[in-house]
């Protein structure tokens, strides 16, 4: 046993002052657990890659990059955070420019923003495995790090969204602040993905953030489409839904064209589970847009349009995540992107 550790306290005594509890394999780190030592050195045999597009004669049959270990809470957070940020911005605009004629939108947007902020923090903590890891990310402020900046954005947004539930001028001022902070909250996740070496995400660096912003706006409009609103408020939401869903489809098309400039990089959006999710998301979005374009539609049609829009936004997030994992497993894509 090393004399650098007190066996009674299990705390290093060599001056590092490291809390060993933080190193526990929990959350996304648990997916890196090695059951057998041989699995950590897979150089004698080529690993099985079901969705990788690489041939066996590339990079010794091994992936060049390490695929993401993010679990389902992360793409869910991408959706919930975007929905909350866009709803806060919509509520702030309704309060600022609605002249008191859009009270339901303003009031319900505050509740969606507050609930979304709380759910977003919970999803991130679920992925990290423990609350202290989220809190420790706030020890520094690093604008050059999308992940660190996103943590600060979410924390500031959560505080403003919670204060927006208060009555009076304090709540109104906090609602405006949450709307301002909510706008970058809808886009920073796209910047976070693009700021990696994963070929699919890196190649989409100019279109992925706008695609997430448009999807967040469409998600907020879809959520309000499923609610009971007055005639004036219904018209506002319908216009937002049409604009947001159309922008979402156009940005998705632009992103698909951008990543397909290098054929192997865009392959995950056409094949495998990620390709299936991407196509399903497109079908849902087109159907939702058609439902929103109908001038006089019954309530069930509005609800159907909102459900389809929500399903399309969620499927997009999961498609992008799964596509990034498949792209990381493809050494050919990483090499082709550098040439």
Describe the overall structure.
- The protein has helices at 73-97, 103-128, 131-136, 146-163, 168-185, 188-194, 199-203, 208-225, 231-259, 272-293, 299-328, 331-338, and strands spanning 5-6, 11-12.
- With 339 residues, it is mostly helical.
- The chain has a two-stranded antiparallel sheet with strand order 1-2.
- Helix 1 crosses helix 5 (168-185), helix 1 packs across helix 8 (208-225) and helix 1 packs across helix 11 (299-328).
- The protein starts with a strand and ends with a helix.
- Residues 1-8 and 39-44 have low confidence and may be disordered.
Brief digest:
This protein is mainly alpha-helical.
Write the SSE topology:
Layout: E1 5-6, E2 11-12, H1 73-97, H2 103-128, H3 131-136, H4 146-163, H5 168-185, H6 188-194, H7 199-203, H8 208-225, H9 231-259, H10 272-293, H11 299-328, H12 331-338
Antiparallel strand pairs: 1-2
Helix pairs in contact: 1-2, 1-5, 1-8, 1-11, 2-4, 4-5, 4-6, 6-8, 8-9, 8-11, 9-10, 10-11
Largest sheet: 2 strands, antiparallel
Strand content: under 5%
User: What percent of the residues sit in helical stretches (DSSP H or I)?
Assistant: 55-70%
Number of alpha- plus pi-helical segments: 12
Morphology call = globular
Strand order of the largest sheet: 1-2
- Report low-confidence residues grouped into runs of 5 or more: 1-8, 39-44
Over all CA atoms, what is the radius of gyration?
Answer: 22 Å
Structural class: mainly alpha
């Amino acid at each position: 046993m090393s004399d650098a550790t007190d066996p009674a306290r299990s705390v290093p005594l060599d001056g590092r002052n490291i809390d060993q509890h933080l190193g526990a394999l929990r959350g996304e780190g648990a997916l890196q657990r090695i059951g057998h030592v041989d699995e950590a050195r897979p150089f004698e045999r080529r690993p099985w890659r079901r969705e990788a597009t690489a041939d066996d004669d590339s990079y010794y049959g091994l992936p060049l990059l390490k695929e993401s270990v993010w679990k389902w809470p992360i793409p869910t957070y991408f959706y919930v955070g975007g929905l909350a940020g866009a709803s806060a911005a919509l509520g702030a605009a309704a309060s600022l420019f609605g002249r008191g004629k859009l009270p339901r939108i303003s009031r319900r947007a505050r509740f969606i923003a507050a609930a979304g902020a709380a759910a977003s923090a919970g999803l991130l903590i679920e992925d990290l495995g423990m609350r202290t890891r989220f809190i420790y990310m706030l020890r520094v402020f690093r604008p050059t790090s999308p992940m660190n900046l996103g943590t600060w954005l979410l924390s500031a947004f959560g505080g403003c969204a919670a204060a927006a539930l208060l009555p009076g001028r304090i709540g109104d001022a906090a609602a405006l602040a949450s709307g301002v902070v909510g706008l970058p909250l809808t886009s920073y996740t796209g910047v976070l993905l693009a700021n990696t070496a994963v070929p699919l995400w890196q190649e989409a660096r100019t279109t992925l953030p706008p695609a997430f912003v448009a999807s967040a706006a469409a998600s907020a409009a879809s959520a309000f489409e499923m609610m009971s609103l007055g005639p004036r408020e219904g018209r506002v939401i319908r216009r937002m839904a049409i604009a947001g869903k159309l922008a979402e489809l156009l940005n998705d098309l632009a992103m698909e064209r951008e990543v397909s400039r290098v054929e192997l990089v865009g392959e995950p959006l056409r094949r495998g589970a990620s390709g299936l999710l991407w196509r399903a998301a497109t079908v849902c979005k087109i159907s939702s847009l058609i439902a929103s374009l109908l001038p006089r539609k019954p309530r069930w049609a509005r609800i159907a349009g909102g459900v389809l829009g929500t399903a399309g936004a969620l499927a997009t997030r999961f498609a992008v995540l799964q596509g990034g994992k498949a792209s990381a497993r493809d050494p050919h894509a990483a090499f082709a992107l550098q040439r």
